[in-house]
Amino acid sequence: MKNYRQAKIKAIIEAQIIETQEELAAALKEQKIEVTQATVSRDIKELNLVKIPYGHGKYRYSYPLDVQQVHSESKMQKTFQDAVTSIDFSENIVVIKTQPGAGGTVAFALDNAQWPEIIGTVAGDDTVLAVVKQKELARGIVTRMKAMAEEA
Questions:
Q1: Which neighbouring-strand residues pair with 87?
Q2: Is the distance from CB of 83 to CB of 106 less than 8 angstroms?
Q3: β-strand partners of 97
Q4: How far apart, in whole angstroms, are the C-alpha atoms of residue 55 and residue 35?
Q5: What is the C-alpha separation between 103 and 80, in angstroms, rounded?
Q6: Which residues share a beta bridge with 3?
Q7: What values do phi and psi take at 49, rounded to 5?
Q8: What do you get for the CA distance between the two ends of the chain, in Å?
Q9: Phi and psi, residue 28, nearest 5°
Q10: Residue 64's pLDDT is what?
């Protein structure tokens, strides 16, 4: 049961933004797995999960990031501020409009940031399509991208 539960935890944090142990326990309950707070806490420690920033002073559970990934996130923020002109979505496709010639740069930054919600990107000269794993997550991804593009 423990291996099954921990596999589900891995899948949940890759598919959703989970900020607290309570949210993780609730997500497990949706998967028909009843857990106590102590069990969730032990699983977090055993899986070596860490909390990472994802915008507006909020943190989420993730696997430990290496220096290159952290650097990619900060580079992506700068790239978004410099190049992105608009962001919108339909279903599970996020459309990112950029300055002419910047589509590839924005897609590269997104790919290297390795957001677990994004399967991949396709870039043109001034447009990037990002495919989100679950359409329910697309609105949150757009909000996160817009915040990244606007922050000073």
A1: 96
A2: yes
A3: 86, 127
A4: 29
A5: 10
A6: none
A7: -70, 145
A8: 46
A9: -65, -40
A10: 67
Q: pLDDT tens, position by position, for the chain (152 residues)? A: 888 999 999 999 988 999 999 999 999 999 999 999 999 999 988 888 888 777 777 888 887 655 445 445 677 788 899 889 999 999 999 999 998 878 887 887 888 787 899 999 999 889 999 999 999 999 999 999 999 898 65
Q: H or E element: which one contains 13?
A: helix 2-15
Burial of 58 (0-12, 13-18, 19+ CB in 10 A): exposed
Q: Distance (Å, rounded) from C-alpha 51 to C-alpha 105?
A: 27
Residue identified by tokens 């944090």 is 13
Q: To 5 degrees, how large is the angle CA 22–CA 27–CA 29?
A: 95
Nearest to 3 by CA among 32, 36, 56, 43: 43
CA 152 to chain CA centroid, nearest Å: 21
- Among 19, 146, 142, CA closest to 92: 142
- What tokens appear for 90 in the block? 């339909």
The DSSP-derived string for 71-91 is: HHHHHHHHHHHHHEEEEEEET
Tokens at 86, concatenated: 């608009």
Pairing of strands 50-55, 127-132: unpaired
